[in-house]
Structure formats: structure tokens, C-alpha cells
Amino acid sequence: MTSPATAVRSAFDAVLTNIRQAEADCHRAPGAVQLVAVTKTYDAGHILPVLEAGQRVFGENRVQEAKQKWPELRQRFSGLELHLIGPLQSNKAGEAVALFDVIETVDRDKIAQSLAVEMHRQQRRPKLLVQVNTGLEPQKAGLPPAEVPDFLARMGATHGLQAAGLMCIPPATEDPLPHFRLLRQLAQQAGLGILSMGMSGDYAAAISEGATHVRVGSAIFGSRPPLA
Ligand SMILES: *Cc1c(COP(=O)(O)O)cnc(C)c1O
Q1: From the CA of 159, how far away is ligand 1's center (Å)?
Q2: Which of 194, 171, 167 is nearest to 84 (CA)?
């Protein structure tokens, strides 16, 4: 029997190895791709082995859950970078600005407006990514691709905010490659450097299409119970 900590550690090592291999396969520099270890639903017992292995970049998709877990871990480990990867409501913008270093899910003016107010008030500047609904799925957050250029322009002109990059979650049942390619084109057109794309099932493909950040949860921590 291996302990959960041992299992998480070896799965983490395997994911890092795969990322380095995917970088090499497409002639990208070693370390060009940042792993965002997605810890939603997992407690400190699962997260500690990965922190102890040196991982410092993590993703959570709920503000409340992150607030319960991360302040304590931040006191114990320096250099942490926490990413919000789930939908943000404007009434949580203050907490999100206080807690997160990167907010990956900016997708409407109301959120941009609330973030701008809070960033000014708190004098904190998390990096902002714009989420794009590349598959135009009605149930999914994110801007339609065609609206991205105007939204980026309004972020600057109306809200005084500069996006650092784009993020997408391709439709679960489709080949993700065309979605990754579309996100890369949109980022290139806008001159944005960060591309957050690729999860447990498709991060190698995302790296081949230019991902700078891959968000990997279950391949490291195990499959999650369905969210209540
Ligand atoms: C949960 C989640 C992930 C990680 O998914 P896995 O398939 O477990 O790797 C990545 N991105 C977002 C936005 C998520 O909500």
C-alpha cells in the first residue's frame, strides 16, 4: 500500500516529467510552461506533498474554498502564486483581489469594473486573464471569441486595466486542438503573453499549441468527488 502522500508525490513528478517532455517535443525551452496545480476539493493533506516538492503555483475555482485553505499555507510557504480559475461574482471581487495573484476568469464589464475598484482600494495588482468561451457553450463562462478585441479595449479605456493573457476550457466532448489554436491566435492578435489552456486530459496538446500555463488537478491529486 502506498500512502496518499506518496501517490500524490509520484503523480506530481510524472506530470512535471510529461510537461518537460512536451516542451522538448515541440522545441520549447525547458520551463517555458508553468504548471498550475489545481487543488479544488483537496485539503492540506493532499497539497502538502506537492508544496514540499517545490511546487508554488496553485489554482482554486471558488473564492470561499480558497479563503479557508490558503492563508494558513501562505504563512508556511513563501513565494506562493494562487490563481482563481472559476467564475467570479462581482460581490466577491474584493476577496478575490485580496487572495489571488492571478485572476483567470475576467469575462464581463461588471467584473472588470469591480476588480478595478478593488485593485485601486487595496493597492494590489493581481494579473488578469480574460476567459474565452471558444466553443460558444451556453452553460459556460467566458466571452465569445469575436467579442475579445472590443472587451480588451474596454478593459483599458473604461476600467484602466491591462489583461496579461487569455484562458479557455474547451468543450469536454470535442477535440481541444482547434480551441487551443483559436485562443493562441486571439492572444497573438492582441499581443498578450499568457495562454492558460490544457488540463489533466490534454495538457500535452495544449503545450504543443503554445500554452504558457497548464491547469492540472486530477492527474496529480486523483479524481474528485462530484461537487455538491
Ligand atoms: C478543475 C479545473 C481544472 C483541472 O481539471 P483536471 O481535469 O482535474 O485537471 C482546470 N481548469 C479549470 C477551470 C478547472 O475548473
Answers
A1: 29
A2: 167
pTM for the complete prediction? Answer: 0.96
d(CA 35, CA 19): 8
Cell of 214: 497548464
CB atoms < 10 A from the CB of 124, how many? 13
Residue located nearest, by CA, to atom 10 of ligand 1: 215
pLDDT of residue 228: 46
CA distance 17 to 56: 17
pLDDT tens-digit readout, 27-85? 999 999 999 999 999 999 999 999 999 999 999 999 999 999 999 999 999 999 999 99
| Backbone Cα Rg of the chain | 17
Residue 140 exposed, middle or buried by CB count within 10 Å (0-12, 13-18, 19+)? middle
Q: Are 198 and 180 within 8 A, CB to CB?
A: yes
- Rounded to whole angstroms, the Cα distance separating 22 from 72 reads 34
Q: Residue 215 CA: which ligand 1 atom is closest?
A: 10
From the CB of residue 136, how many other CB atoms can be counted at a distance below 10 Å? Answer: 11
Q: Which atom of ligand 1 is nearest to the CA of 224?
A: 8
